[in-house]
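Reviewers of the previous submission asked for a worked example of the structure-prediction workflow described in the proposal, so we include one complete record here. The input consisted solely of the amino acid sequence. No template or homolog information was supplied to the procedure at any stage.
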Amino acid sequence: MAILTEDIRYGVRMLRKAPGFTLVVVLTLALGIGANTALFSVVNGVLLHPLPYPDPEQLVRLHESKPSFETGSISYPNFRDWQKENQTFSAMAISRDNSFALTGSGEAEQLSAELTSSDFFSLLGVKPVIGRVFAPGEDEIGAAPVAIISASLWERKFSTSPGILGKGITLDGKDYTVVGVVPSNFNLLLRSSSRSFHPSEVYVPIGQWGNPALLNRGAGLGLHGVGRLRPGTSIEQAQADMDRVTRNLAIAYPDSDRGISAKLIPLKSEVVGRVEPILLVLLGAVGFVLLIACANVANLLLARSTVRTREFAIRAALGASQGRVVRQLITESTMLALAGGVLGLLLAGWGTRAALALLPSALPRAQEIGLDSRVLVFTFAISVAAGLLFGLVPALRTSREDLHSTLKEGTRSVSGAHHRTQSAFVVVEIAMALVLLSGAGLLIRSLVQLWNVNPGFDSRNVLTFNVSLPASTAQASPAAIRAAWREFDDKMKSTPGVQSVSLSWGAFPISGDDETLFWIEGHPKPSSEHDRNWAVKYVVEPDYLRTMGLQVKRGRFLNTQDNEHSPLVVVIDDAFARKYFPNQNPIGKRLYMDVFDPDAAEIVGIVGHVKQWGLDRDDSEAVQAQVYLAFMQLGDPIMKLTAPGAGVVVRSTASAPALFDSLRHVSAQMSSQQVVYGPESMDEIVSESLAARRFSMILLGVFAGLALLLASIGIYGVISYVVGERTREMGIRMALGAQRSDILWLILRQGGRLAGAGLVLGLLSSIGLARFMTDLLYGVRATDPLTFLVVAMLLGLVALAACCVPALRAARVDPMVALRYE
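From that input alone, the workflow returned the following structure tokens.
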């Protein structure tokens, strides 16, 4: 410790004597360490940090797997049988995203909600803030209406009054008794809808849902489950057990369950599955940035060690061992690394907050991201590792200098080994910078390709939101609900700036799906639901065509005459026509659909296909066929389900925020109990669907920019150092007749050789590593030659530009001054 203290004290003195050198090294390391710390904090929060539930490794997500859907929703009767028949789960629960209009407690508002089975909270280990969770049996159909609210709603609406327990709240016009308050945000990870990525504020037993299809064994209805494995049970054992259960159900209920199986996915894998490969690629990329920073600092230390060669030769002559000299240099490099780590930690905190603020929806579990103890340990570890990495080579080089030659020649002697080592560092820097630039270039080209994809609709100037009719209307007859929707339409259309309006129920492009079963008239009637076909179902109004900018390919779209009094009609998309009516004209054909059972609907038109599943993955989804139904032709039981909430799409000439304020004002004039909520422009929906890709592109672009900057600084430093060491040589050359252009070309050629070697090595490495990015690309090959050519030219030009300043300085050397100096 005494020797270490001496080394630290001496190191501080030496670093204070060279403040410019110290500042450059610390800043260089801060960029590399800060970038690594920032990304590790994201990886730690998203991938490494356990889920905020007891024994999270026991939690799995439950889905029904159908022939057309690997992870479909579960029918309620099947779920009940899964609960009873399984032997590997300690508990199973089911939930469904929902919303309720809260009235009677101040201004009416729409609440994000969840329909759950009674053991939902106990399975997840959620302890209520006050009160209790649902008791067994409270999720049965016909049970007393009870509700649990979140702590945020308790504070916002009820001032955290304990008296809320046992009191009633009115949801969609129905009174529920509040039995407990649970922490906010606990259920955020289980939300299944991308447009509902908000914490639930109220929870209601699934049995209170008034959907008549709930007991239909063939209806999924957006229900997804979560299960807790028994201690010591593997997911493979649970999957085998559930395969047994579903096989038995298929025998017992062949019409609805034949071909149906259970799909089990570890909960954490489902939460982070899509973003995990992106983060791992970025973590590897940011590691390259740190290596480039270390190579830069090692070059600086090599240059500085040349100046200090005589110092260490004298120390050796006075008895210092080689190990003592190496230890002193390693101590100094570690001090620099730790200083860079502290500054990098500050940069990481700022950078992480900025990234999450710019792209809040790009990452799951964003609320878990922060600088915790694990991140601090990581920063300390990479700081020490970096200090050892960039300090070891210069230290060993310096300690091997010949004592006799150094003392005789003073500080003028520079070994060729120093130059070769520095050149090798520069070559590696350029190669790694090219790898990062290639990756960033491929992601940029992918995103450009995606933005040029035709989604099948025109997203410009389209606003979407939701509306919940007053509770009194929701309890009225289907005819009264239809009249209320028609009045709402008329009021919206008369609002200044509105060009067209349509209600929307069912699926919505990119942000919400809903499927229907069908079979074609004239074909043999399927013996079971399993043998029917699937199609994405849009329930819309005639103006949906104009509002969304769909293209009619043949026939017509829905019109105002397609109402509850006219024959049933549907419009299909061209993907539907190609698959089910090849080389035929579908117009006039008839479809039997579960939503219209037992009547058939006539096909009256064909429209273009919409990228329902996202711009980047629509083509890979199994269900491509799409069908449009007239909103007013929904049957009476389904029409009653639209009253608590339906979507609205509006095309306008006004800005989205101003338009929504006007529409909300118009709605409030109709009824203070009518709630409009959830405004989002169609452009925002499209952009949000690409958030993860945009996040990876921006971060990799930032890392590539840092790498380019550090690599250019590295080659500039080496060439500048070489020019300084060869001043006498340049003077002699010019004294013997060399022109300034000859000197300029000499230096540029040397820099060009380093850049060329780095580019060749980088191209080979990029081609080898590109396969890891295949899943992140769209419309671009991982070995795209144009991208590699462009980034190689860019890096080559930057490298040559970095050589120009020292080359020009060498060309301006006065031979007399250079020779006199020597």
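The mean pLDDT is 85. We consider this example representative of the routine output the project will generate in years two and three.
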